[in-house]
Give the backbone structure.
Amino acid sequence: MDWHEVLIQQTVNGVTRGAVFALIALGYTMVYGIIGLINFAHGDVFMLGLFISLSYLTLLGMATTLHGWQLVIVLPAVFLATMLTTGMINVVIDRVAYRPLRHAFRLAPLITAIGVSFMLENLTLIWKGPAPIAYPDVFPSVDILREWFGLDSLLFITTKDLLVLAGTIPLMIGLQYFVTRTRSRRPSSSPFSSEAPSRGRPASSRGSTTTSGCGGWATRRACVPSPRRFWAASGACRAPRWAVS
């Protein structure tokens, strides 16, 4: 492999992996930037979204590589259903755990977020058990240069790389619009602060909207196949383990 091929390959690897990390980071950014809370449970919702999406795929009998109409209908439907489910989970967490502490001292929500994280991990352990579970390779991996263009190149660029970018860029644009153009944008004071909230929607409403959106955001990343093989280990860590095959 020549130096320019190495440069191109590493650029592709860096952009796709960076897009994966960006989707996770955007959820943390939304919560901390809008409601001023470090949500330690975000990674656990991410992990939970994996198992929920896997449950939906298993329920539909399609926990395998999808083709044709399945990619157009089944995959987006599972994306949407899982995002709605984890969004609802985050709303429940906000109503039960975070909202009562809106005006408490700042350490209380932080400790509560850690407690919610442990709770989600242990509930998932009860649900799925401690053994690692291999997430099915639902999106077909096609070598674009060789199979589509017939080029004999050492570069390895797959359809999964394109899917990661196609899933990340619209969400980044959507977040930019949400933060800069909607009434739920970043307030001048945190809902967890004793200061008066800024004009616009009430702090409690902003908190529910933000946590709900972050639940869907985490799941959107969880449902996006990694460019490399992806393993989910229930409760083993706050974000699922992945291994390069």
